[in-house]
Automatic annotation (TrEMBL):
This is Uncharacterized protein. Residues 298-316 have a biased composition (Basic and acidic residues). InterPro entries: DUF5688. It comes from the Bacteria. Residues 295-323 are annotated as: Disordered.
Amino acid sequence: MNYGEFMETVVKSIPDYLPEEYRDASVSVSQMQKINSPLQDAIIIRKPDDNIAVTIYPEKFYEEYQRGVSLEEILRQIADAGKQADIGGNRNRLEEMVRDIQEFGRIQDEIFVYACNYGYNRDGLQDKPHTVAGDIAAYYRFTRGDYGVTITDKMLSAYGITKEELHDIAVKNTTRTFPGPLPMEEIIGGIPGMELSPGEAPAMLVLTNEEACNGAGAIFCPHVLENAGRKMGGDFYIIPSSVHELLLVPAGIGDAEDMDQMVREVNATCVEPEIQLADHVFLYDTVRKKVTVPGEKTLQEKEPGKMNVKQEDSYQPHKRTGR
């Protein structure tokens, strides 16, 4: 079977493999466009009158089918994935989130700023509030535990606030989650076999959040950058390691063009496209409190899907204005 035939068979057959309470569930296929992910098919399973649907991404199952796993086994695996997504505490927490997300006051302290590559995510950002700064963009997510929802334009309109207000709230919340820049030796020292003595450690700091996941949003947080400047003792380069973390290097160390080349090489060989942030370094000016691109008056416009985008000199991170 080709992919289309596989999907038709799954949609038709999967109800027979689901628990009894799903016998009347609707099964459909929708295309999902998530930030930092390519457009992908999703199997949506929804029980009648249920406000929570089970979403399963079939690509990996089709790959298993192509490797020779039987269709019956694939259907069992998909059904098991659906049941796992719907069990006990998960459902209760999701139902609570669905209720809370209807009222901005219930979630405003759990909205955070995330950073992504604008060119790669241009299409996915179209219906979501976002702030473009050169070739990266800030977007905003309500996050609770392991679950999260990206704020959409429709949600923003229902909340009755502006994008700028949303940005300031998300920046304030995000700033509070950052422990501050960590010395590289602490990061490397946590990897078995990679312990370094203080003299061997590079003059580099790592900037990420407590979870070390989607921590590059710090580039939009003025107080986080100012604190980093104090620790660095002056201006510093920001190396966009990925959407998860930023590496900080004193501006007096190394050449920006050489570091740009390093970033491009690492992106090409070690970093998946969906988590790449940019293909060049940034410079943080501690006097002007601005992030710029070294040696460029503007950021070069590039095609969507490549590394990246908007003509802009530099950007001034938003400062909280109060409401």
